[in-house]
Specification:
single chain; 219 residues; alpha/beta; DNA polymerase, domain 1; 2 domains; 9 helices; HAD_sf; phosphoprotein; HAD-SF_hydro_IA
Length: 219
């Protein structure tokens, strides 16, 4: 197997916990539209783009508005979400995430963000994570949503490394599939039942080491 020279990280649920803010905003939109949106429903939105998430929400509510209305609804949800995440700070970085990224940098391994979020820069700036990334690919740079591999192949290109030398860190099935389709190894963060297609599944980045990561080179 190729040596690991770069790591690409999803943002939501991997480095920071913005999922709760997404859920609050989607739930608020559903209630305004007259139906319930549960935490179980929200699981279907993990790793999915904003408009695709809206389509799922509208399907749950049994609604089929025109495209102009859909754009207005997506903008409303995003405005609420931005309002919520504007108060984020470094305390909302998930346990072990910053320490692991710092250890990657110390070992000369490149680091990139690969996120569908169009608000990634706001989150990275508010939490102080921006300087740690050699490349940042977010929803403003991509045309295709995960499970399309575009976000990760763009990341590898911007880092100047071959895809087979990259490892992706993801918490969603769509992200695992995107990494696989990009020809990259993948570490799933969460449940083995959900993320079983990853090369390795861990509960969080807390306590995870570069040496354990490099063990994937043998697999």
């Amino acid at each position: 197997m190729s040596p690991i020279t770069a790591c690409l990280f999803d943002l939501d649920g991997v480095l920071v916990d913005t999922a709760k803010y997404h859920y609050i905003a989607w739930k608020r939109l559903a209630e305004e539209l007259g139906f319930e949106f549960t935490e179980q429903d929200n699981e279907r939105l993990k790793g999915v783009s904003r408009m695709a998430s809206l389509d799922i929400l509208l399907e749950i509510g049994g609604l089929a508005p025109d495209e102009e209305t859909k754009l207005d609804l997506a903008a409303k949800k995003n405005a609420w979400y931005v309002e919520y995440i504007s108060t984020m700070d470094a305390s909302e970085i998930l346990p072990g995430a910053l320490e692991f990224i710092q250890s990657l940098k110390e070992r000369g391994i490149k680091v990139a963000l690969g996120s569908a979020s169009k608000n990634a820069m706001l989150i990275l700036n508010n939490t102080g994570l921006t300087p740690y990334f050699d490349a940042i690919i977010d929803g403003t740079k991509t045309q295709q949503a995960k499970p399309d591999p575009e976000v990760f192949t763009l990341g590898a290109r911007e880092l100047g490394v071959p895809t087979e030398s990259c490892v992706v860190f993801e918490d969603a099935e769509a992200g695992i599939e995107a990494a696989t389709r990009a020809g990259m190894r993948c570490v799933g963060i969460g449940s083995p039942e959900t993320l079983g297609r990853a090369n390795l599944v861990i509960s969080s980045l807390e306590g995870f080491t570069v040496d354990r990561l490099l063990g994937l080179q043998e697999k």
